[in-house]
Amino acid sequence: MTPYDVIDEDNARAVLDGLDLPVDWRIHLAGYLPQLMTIGESGAVVIRLANDDRRPLFLKADSGPFAEVPAEAERLAWLANQQIAAPRVVDRIEQRGTHVLLMTAVPGNDMASLPDAIPTEIAHLAGEALAALHAHDPATCPFDHRIDNRLPVAQLNLAAGRVHPVW
What we know:
This protein has a domain at 9-105: Phosphorylase Kinase, domain 1 (2-Layer Sandwich), CATH 3.30.200. Strand 2 and strand 3 form a beta hairpin. The longest helix has 16 residues, at 119-134. Strands 1-2-3-5-4 form a five-stranded antiparallel beta sheet. The radius of gyration is 17 Å and the shape is globular. By secondary structure, it is α+β, with helices and mostly antiparallel strands. Residues 1-6 have low confidence and may be disordered. Helix content is 35%, strand content 21%.
């Protein structure tokens, strides 16, 4: 099974219905098959939207004081302006405290979905991707994720029980 297999389509539809999406979103997403994603540790609900005739999309929703969707949308918009391969923001909304991001899918598979890949190959691919990102001038990046800025956020997540217990 891959993370793109249909997993409880009815539950994915129920999640979408519970988001009370605007009419224009519902019209745009008509005909897409929702697939609830089962990998990831962000705490957000992630749904892959598949359609044989159209490019797949991803919908990501989260809420609460640790909601990362607004900042993720800002980072994706910046990456797009830098011509860096990344999902493109289609739209984003905030409904009753829930942040919802609709974005394009990036062609290919995530590294967790490569069951036959050799770990050294995965490490090499990850290194190439990071090298490409690091080739850009950090002075032009408005996001400061140095350890001294991210550590307090990590400590808040840990205190809130949002860190996987095995990690």
